[in-house]
Amino acid sequence: MVQLRVGLAQVNVTVGDLAGNADVIVRWVRRGAEAGAHLLVFPEMALTGYPIEDLALRESFAEASKAALVRLAGRLADAGCGEVACCVGYLDLDGQGARDAAAVLYRGEVVARQFKHHLPNYGVFDERRHFTAGAGLAVLTIRGVEVGMVICEDIWQDGGPVTELGRIGVDLVVSPNASPYERKKDDVRLELVAKRAREAGAPLLYANLVGGQDELVFDGDSIVVAADGTLLARAPQFVEHLLLVDLDLPGGAPRGEPSEFTVTRRTLSAEPVPGYPPEYPRNIAEPLSDEAEEWAALVTCLRDYVHKNGFRSVVLGLSGGIDSAVCAALAVDALGADAVYGVSMPSVYSSEHSRSDAAELARRTGVHYEVQPIETMVAAFVGQLGLTGLAEENVQARCRGMTLMGLSNQHGHLVLATGNKTELAVGYSTIYGDAVGGFAPIKDVLKTRVWELARWRNAAAEWRGETPPIPESSISKPPSAELRPGQLDTDSLPDYKLLDDVLDDYVEGDRGYEDLLAAGFEPELVQRVLRMVDRAEFKRRQYPPGTKITFKAFGRDRRLPITNAWREGQDGTVPETT
Amino acid sequence: MVQLRVGLAQVNVTVGDLAGNADVIVRWVRRGAEAGAHLLVFPEMALTGYPIEDLALRESFAEASKAALVRLAGRLADAGCGEVACCVGYLDLDGQGARDAAAVLYRGEVVARQFKHHLPNYGVFDERRHFTAGAGLAVLTIRGVEVGMVICEDIWQDGGPVTELGRIGVDLVVSPNASPYERKKDDVRLELVAKRAREAGAPLLYANLVGGQDELVFDGDSIVVAADGTLLARAPQFVEHLLLVDLDLPGGAPRGEPSEFTVTRRTLSAEPVPGYPPEYPRNIAEPLSDEAEEWAALVTCLRDYVHKNGFRSVVLGLSGGIDSAVCAALAVDALGADAVYGVSMPSVYSSEHSRSDAAELARRTGVHYEVQPIETMVAAFVGQLGLTGLAEENVQARCRGMTLMGLSNQHGHLVLATGNKTELAVGYSTIYGDAVGGFAPIKDVLKTRVWELARWRNAAAEWRGETPPIPESSISKPPSAELRPGQLDTDSLPDYKLLDDVLDDYVEGDRGYEDLLAAGFEPELVQRVLRMVDRAEFKRRQYPPGTKITFKAFGRDRRLPITNAWREGQDGTVPETT
C-alpha cells in the first residue's frame, strides 16, 4: 500500500481576476502545505473563474491566463510549496483553439496539462462556442502513485476519458469541476462520482468551485470516493474549504498500456511517501436540507454579485408583502443588516397593513428604513398625461422604481428587484417598475416556494433563539400588488398552487399542450397560463440577473424568441387571431 | 441538354406561425406554378421561421412542424401545384434529435428529406444546442435532372456535402438558407456560392430568407450561379421575390456512385421537360449601395418587429438630436408617418434649438407630435428625495422614459429606444431612462455611422425630389444630452471619430490592449474606453433588442459576464484597485 495526503481546495474566485485568483490559490496551497498535503486539487478554471463566456475567445486573455499560470508555479515554489503537486484549472490556447484546461504545478514548473474532452452545450453551457475539445490524457507519477485527470463534464458522459483511465489503469483520478448548483443536484453528483470511481477502479477526487458568478452559484460539495464508490470525504456546501484526506492506495498501476488516446506520462517522484500516521481518515459533511441549501444558494449568489461588482450595500422596496420580505431577509443574511436599505413607498391604494408589515420587517431585521410616499410623483404623471387603468397602475410601480434608482444613484446602493419566478413567468410585473434592479434574488423561486422558504427561515431563527425575520402577516395575507383599490393577485392570476404546478411542467419540463392535459390540467387553464408565459418574453429579456436554483431558470437556460407566433394547443391547423 | 425552369422563393415568414407560413408557401407556389416553374426552392426552415431558438427542443413544436409539412404537401396538390417539386425548409425530429431539415414535396407527398450537416455554433448561432447533425444525402431525379440538396452552413464549410455531391456527380444543387444580413456580407456570399458551384460541377440555387426576426434581419439576395460560377440571376434585397430562371443543363449525371455518406436516391420524373423557348434567361438585380443596404436592413427589421408582435404604431422621444431624428425617419420609412408618434419632452436644461429641431423634424416627416414638459415630474422626485449631480441628471432621462411608457400603455404604441451603438458600448445612457423601449432601431449603428446614414437619407430624398426628413441642424450641431447647463457629449467622451475607431477594433475585432496600442491608439485613450465598455455590461443586458447590422452586435453575438474583473492592459500582474 502507498499512502498519500490529498487536499481538495474548494475556493471562491472571481471571473477575470487572474492576479486575485492566483493570490487565493497561493493562500490555499500554503494551508495545504502546512497540513502536509502531497497533492492539492483546485476546481475547473480556478485561475480565470468560471464561466468566462466570450472572454475565452479573446486571445489577450488566454495569453494572460497562460502567463499567470507560469508565474503561479514560480510563486508557489518561492513560497516553499514547490513539493506539493497542485492541479489548477485555467484557460489555455494553442494552434487548435481555446482550451478548458487543468495543469499540474510542481517545483516551480508547469509539469502537465490536461484538456477537457466533453464540452457541454446545453442548459446554461455554451462550451462548444468557446473551447476546442481535448483528445489526450496526461498521467503523472506522484510519490509512486499513478494519477490521471478528467475535467467536469468528462465524468458526466458515459464512455468518456474516465473509462479509458480505468482501462489503461491508474491509482487515482483527480477531477477539477465547476458544476453549478441546482436543487437536488448534490444527490445526483455523489452517485455519479461513485460510479466513475468504480469505472476507473481508483479513488476519485472531485473538487468543485464555490461562490456566485452572475446567475450561477457553485455549492462546492467537493467529494472523495474510494475505488469501490464508498464516500470517504465530503466538503460543506457554500463555504470555502480545504478537504483533506489520507488515502491508502494499492499503487503499482500498470504504466505504458496502449490507448486510443495519446497518453502523456511523466514521473514527478517515483518514491512513495514514507509511512506516516493518518490524520484525516474520514471527514464527511452532512448535506444541507433542501430549504437550507436553496437559502444558502440565494444568499451566496447575492453576496458575491454585490461584492464582486464593487458594491457595499443594497436598497429595495418594502411593500409589506412576502417577496420583498424574503429578499430583505436574504440580503441581511448575505450582507448584514447595516448594508441593507429598505424603503416603504406607499400610494393612495396602499393598505394600513402593508405599511405596518414593512415597518415590522425592518424592526425585526434591523435594516435601515425610510418611508417615501409616491402620491406627488404619481399625480404629476397621471395628471399631465391623462393616464387611466393599467397605464395608471404602471405609473405607481414605475415611480417606485425611479425612487429606488434615485436613492441608488445618490448613495451608491445596488437596487434589488424583488419579483419571483411565477410573476416573471406570467409577466405579472411592471417593466421599469418593480422590475427595476441590478440583481433579482428570488427570480428563480416560484411563489409557493417563496412562502415555504419564508416559513423555513423563520423556523430556523426560532430554533436558534433569534427573532424570526419575516412578519407572520406577510406570509399569511393574500398577496396583492395594491395598484388599485381592493386588488388581489387572484383577480388576474389562477390560484398560485395550481399556477406553479403548470409552470413547473411547462417551463422546467418543456411539456407541450397535450402533455399538460394528460397531466390532468384543465384545457382553459393551460391555454391561459401558456399564453401569459409566451407573451411575457419581452419583459424577461430586460429583467435583471438573479440566482439560478432550478433545473431551468429564465435566462440562459431557456432561450426563446420574443417574436414567436407559436401557441401550444393550436398545432398550426388554426391560424391564431390576435 | 435538358431544360428546367426553377424558382427561388425569397419569402418573409414568422417564427412559430406554422399555419401562416404554410399559407405564404402555398401563395408563392401558386405563383411559381402559374409561371411554369418545374422546381421551387424555399429558404431554410421556411415553414417554422428562423431562428426558432429553444422551440427546437420542444417536442410538441417539432411534431407540429412535421404534421404541418405533410398537410402542406396535400394542400399544394389540392391547389393543382402537385407537379411542381418544392423544396421547403422545416424542423424535423427523429430518434437522434431535432433536425434543421429541408423536404421535397411532390404530387401531395413528402418525397425526400435532407438534414443539415454543419451546425454553426458561433456568433449569433447556437445550432449545436438545438440540432443533431445530418450525415446523409438525398438525391432526386426531377425531370431527368439529378438534384442534390445542401442547407446553409453546409456551403460555408470546406469539404462539406457540396464537395461530395461534386464527387458523386449531380446536375443541380439546391440550397435553402437563412443567412442573416451583415454589412458587406453580400459580396462574400456571391463568391462563396460561385466557388461551391464549381466544386459541385453543377449550377447552384441559393434561396435566402427575407425579413426581420428579433435582432436578426435577412436580406434575401437569393442567387443562381452556373456550374462555372457565372452569376445567372440575383434577387433584389429586403423584399419578397420569386426569382425565376430557365436553366440549360447537360443532364446525364452518374447515378449510383459510391459515397462515404448514405445517399438516398429517388426518381420523381425521369422524362426531361420537352423543349420550350426560355423566358427567364438572366435576371440580375443590382445590389444596393452600402448605405442603402444598411438603411433597408434597419427599416425592414423595425417594421417586422412591430408588425409581427402585433403593434400598429410606435412612440419615441424627439430631442432635436441626431439619434432620435434618424430613428423617426426609419420608423416613417418602415410604418408610414401616421403610425409614428413623436414626443418632445423639454426640461429646464433644454435649449431652444432642441425644441425647434424636434418640431422641424415632425414637420418634415409628418409624424404625430406633442410636447410634454417634464419639469413638474422631475421636481417631484428631486425635491422629495434630495437628488443632486448624476442622480438628478438620471431623473430627467427617467421621467422621459416613464412618459413614453405611460403614453405606450395608454394608447398601445410600441416605445422605441433611440440609443446608438457607441452610447451602448460606453454606457453613455440612463438605464430605465433613454434606454426604455420595446425595440432599439439603431442599437448596432455607431455614432459616426448615424451621421453618415442621416446625410445619405437626406440626399436620397433630395434626389427623388422629396423633403429631406432630418433637419440639417440636427446633423451639424455638437451632440449633447442636455441634462445639465451647457453639457456636451465631449465633456464625458472622447471625440466620436476616435471613439468609434477604438470601439470598432475592441468590440468587432475583439483585439486586446497590446494590439490596440500597435494599431496606433494612445494608451490612456485605450484604457479609458475599454474601462467604460467593460463596466457597462450590466446596462446592455437590460437594453431592448435592436437590428444587428455589423459583424458583432451587442446581444447574442458578444456574450460577456457582468461580473468580470478582467481589465485589458493589466494582464494579471498588477491587482486592480477599484
Low-confidence stretches of chain A: 572-578
**Strand line-up in the sheet with most strands of chain A:** 15-6-7-8-9-12-13-16
Major protein interface: A-B, 99 and 99 residues
Structural class of chain A: alpha/beta
Strand content of chain A: 15-25%
Task: Please write out the topology.
2 copies of one chain form a homodimer.
Chain A: E1 2-10, H1 18-34, E2 39-41, H2 59-78, E3 85-94, E4 97-106, E5 109-115, H3 127-130, E6 137-142, E7 145-149, H4 153-156, H5 161-168, E8 172-177, H6 185-200, E9 204-208, E10 210-213, E11 216-219, E12 223-225, E13 231-234, E14 241-249, E15 263-267, E16 283-284, H7 290-308, E17 314-317, H8 322-335, E18 340-344, H9 352-365, E19 368-371, H10 375-385, H11 389-411, E20 414-415, H12 421-426, H13 447-463, H14 472-476, H15 489-492, H16 496-508, H17 513-518, H18 523-535, H19 537-541
Parallel strand pairs in A: 1-2, 2-3, 6-15, 7-8, 8-9, 13-16, 17-18, 17-20, 18-19
Antiparallel strand pairs in A: 1-14, 3-4, 4-5, 6-7, 9-12, 10-11, 12-13
